[in-house]
Structure formats: C-alpha cells, structure tokens
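Worked example 2:
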Amino acid sequence: MNQYSPKEYWTDVAENFRSADGSGFAPVLHPGAPVWFNRLIDDLQFRAFRRALSLAALPPGSRILDVGCGTGRWVRRYLELGHRATGIDATPGMLRLARQQGTAAPLLAGEAFRLPFSDAVFDCVSDVTVVQHIPEAFQPTALAEMVRVLKPGGRLILFELIRGKDAHIFPHTPEDWIQQTSQCGTKLVGWFGQEFLAFDRLFAHFAHKFAGKSGSTSGDSAAPPMASPGRGSLSRRAYWGMRHITAPVSAWMDPAVEKLLPPRLATHAVFVFLK
C-alpha cells in the first residue's frame, strides 16, 4: 500500500476533477459528487465563515493569508469583502484552477508546514479543511507555522473536521484542535459546530450500511456507497436522487438543529483564535 502524500493526492484531484463544474468546487469539496451537492455545501460553509469573520472582528483592509487556498474561493471572497488576500497551496494544479477562476490576488506555491513568509506578516490566517488532510505527525508544525506568520493580536480561523477518518483524513475532537492550537501561542476566542445535516447524514449512514460498507469511518458523507461502474449507474442515480431531497431539507433545518444539539455532533467545527 502506497504511503499517503497530501501533495500527490491533491494533484490527482485537481487533474481528475478540474472540469467537474464551472465554479471550481469539485476539487476542493466532494470530488465525484453532483454539482448541486457541492454548491449546497459551499453555501453552508460560506454562511459559517461569515459568522467566523464576525467573531474575528477584522477591520476592513486586513491582510489575510488563506492556507491551502485550492481553487481560490475564499481568496476571492476576502477581496469582495474589502480585505487584502493572499493564497498559498501545495498543488500547482489547484493554483492554475484558481487563476482560471479569475482570482485577482497573489497566489503562491508552498506547504502549510513550511510557509514562505516572515514572522508576523498577516492580520488573519485562515485554514478551511486543510490541516485535517495533513498526516498527524505534521499537523502541530503546520499550526505553529500559521501562528508564526500572524501579527500579535492577529486572528487564526480554523475550519476542520471533528468526526470520521479515512486514508487522507485525520480529524480531531474539538478539545484536541483547541489544545493543539493553544499550545502554539494562541487563545481561543470562540468556536461552533458546522454542517449537522442530520436527516441527510442519517440517510447516508443507512445507505452505506445497506451497501455493506458500515465499517467505513470516512468523514466524507458525499461518497456514494453503492458500487457503480459509471456515473450513470442506476444505484448512483437512486442514491443521489434521494439525497437531492434529504440534503436541502437538512440544510434548511440546520439552524434549528444547531440550537438543539451539542456542537460536537456536527461534522466540522469552526474555531477563532487570537495570537
């Protein structure tokens, strides 16, 4: 079995899914999922990120570094919000896609655990589902690097998986994320759960179980559980046809569900730290 390499993994994803949709969501969200599903997930994440930015209380014109910028969706949004943004990603293919998407900001090639910047450069550093894909041995270094390039008083926004595991996913409990990042010289401002999608997750769980994959611990609830020789297979169409109902309904219910359930029951958590 080949050892997992984040750079090689994302290079393959960028190459194989670069034309999956015009918005560039497929390579950075759920490769292989329908376009509508990735748009729904992006909308949920954008809502959560606006909440995180409000919690961070960044002044206009803040200098923000987006680590693992992928196809540039967050860099473009920072610019729209009036900030000065820079993106960095380890995968040249992702950066090419970001430029094709019209990202009008500096985009650099580099790895999260070796950021090519001086100390105390940025007002804010964001990481949207990036460290969760870095092997655990390198995660503390990546977090320390993000804190290093922050100015004193700067904010670090982490958006990471808190449940599930797979060959390329290494999540932690909220307490572990908070502890690891606090050890790098930060103080937690606040955090909340993101993406409950309770009804949809329940359906996906039983669909996977029915398909004989109940042993999987993948955090990717978008992965179709049924063996399908091609994108148009009957099982795949039935699976996504059902989720075209369960996912939007669950997304609509999420604000109410969040008030009823503990944040640790979400699939992701969003953290804001102060250096």
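The mean pLDDT is 88. Strands lie at 63-67, 84-89, 107-109, 122-128, 150-161, 187-194, 268-274.
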